[in-house]
Specification:
It is built from 13 helices and five strands. It is of the alpha/beta class. The protein has two domains: 5-132, 3-Layer(aba) Sandwich (Rossmann fold); 153-325, no CATH class. It is globular, with a radius of gyration of 22 Å.
Length: 339
């Protein structure tokens, strides 16, 4: 089966993978193959090294051999799933013993590949797993945004607006619909110095996004107790705001990023009970993932047609996060179950 390379490129963009293999030659072959698609590939030669890396940072996918020193792949997978049940894992092995397969099914791994494995077979299997991850995220985002809209009861009644007001709003919306690609091409011709500055800032943006995700994961892992991880996360969001400020066309979204940092600045962790923290910071996880995806779409894909499409929903979700943290009364929350 031929790999859909374009699909794999799209699904793996911005994602991190941990590759665990004690055979140096196989490790290097798979590492080179995966680096073509994933934004970051980290490697480990044994179970202990892999566990240490897993505890320090988030990985979208873990690919692990079964037979290796210092904790085999099955024990490692059990530990990972006990710690993070939603973690996606692909197992590779030269053995197909039935007891291995049954145990892996019970653990809940996402796939199993028998060695020897071609890079084509590896990429096909990873594509299937990434498609499942993407579908799950899209479903959760739809549920989340629907929930927020029902809670906030935000309605726009066009019939109450004057024809002049409607025309002004339509003109503003139409003027905003300039693709990032067109925007960059114009800058490159009219102002080359700004264009190359823009290209440099994109690297800073991506570094900031990864730092932000890692600090959030550390904060959650410490059960929302350690102020230092929250402070590092806030610093990352301020840094993100500062970098986005260079791009005039996303100023509306940039202002919301600053607002998110200010909301977090006001939080006193000791004054919030654990249940509220769990609810609020699950919302924060969506906010972080959404801004990350928006920036990837904007500055990596460069095919967004409306640079401000993201603004209204992001503003509402920040308000929802703030209200949850402050324990403000939420309407209709007996009628809806938060997933």
């Amino acid at each position: 089966m031929k790999t859909d390379v374009n699909l794999l490129i799209k699904l793996a963009k911005g994602k991190k993978v941990l590759l665990i293999e004690d055979d140096e030659q196989i490790l290097e072959i798979f590492k080179v193959a995966l680096e073509t698609y994933f934004s970051l590939v980290k490697t480990a030669a044994d179970g202990k090294e892999a566990w240490d890396l897993f505890r320090k940072e988030h990985f979208d996918l873990i690919v692990s051999d079964i037979q290796m020193p210092n904790t085999n792949g099955i024990m490692l997978s059990k530990g990972i799933k006990a710690h993070t049940p939603e973690q996606n894992i692909l197992i590779t092995s030269a053995y197909t013993d039935e007891k291995y397969l049954l145990e892996l099914i019970d653990i809940g791994v996402d796939g199993f590949l028998k060695k020897p494995i071609s890079t084509s077979n590896l990429k096909n299997t990873i594509t299937k797993i990434l498609k499942k991850i993407q579908s799950k995220k899209e479903l959760e985002r739809v549920k989340f945004n629907t929930y927020v809209k029902q809670i906030s009861k935000r309605t726009i009644d066009e019939t109450r607006k004057s024809p002049t007001q409607v025309k002004i709003e339509q003109d503003i919306e139409q003027n905003a619909k300039v693709s990032v690609k067109e925007f960059l091409e114009k800058i490159k011709i009219e102002d080359p110095e700004s264009y190359y500055f823009f290209e440099n800032q994109k690297e800073i943006l991506m570094d900031t996004l990864y730092d932000m995700s890692d600090n959030f994961d550390s904060f959650v892992y410490k059960e929302y107790k350690e102020e230092e991880h929250l402070e590092e996360l806030i610093n990352d969001i301020h840094k993100l705001h500062s970098t986005l400020s260079y791009f005039d066309r996303v100023e509306k979204v940039t202002s919301e990023v600053l607002r998110l940092a200010e909301v977090l600045d006001d939080i006193k962790l000791d004054d919030i009970n654990y249940g509220t923290k769990e609810e609020a910071f699950s919302i924060l996880e969506f906010l972080i993932n959404d801004i990350k995806q928006y920036i990837l779409d904007m500055f990596m894909e460069e095919n967004v047609q409306d640079v401000n499409y993201f603004h209204d929903s992001y503003r509402e979700n920040i308000t929802f996060f703030e209200n949850t943290i402050n324990q403000k009364e939420k309407e209709d929350d007996n009628d809806l179950e938060f997933f």
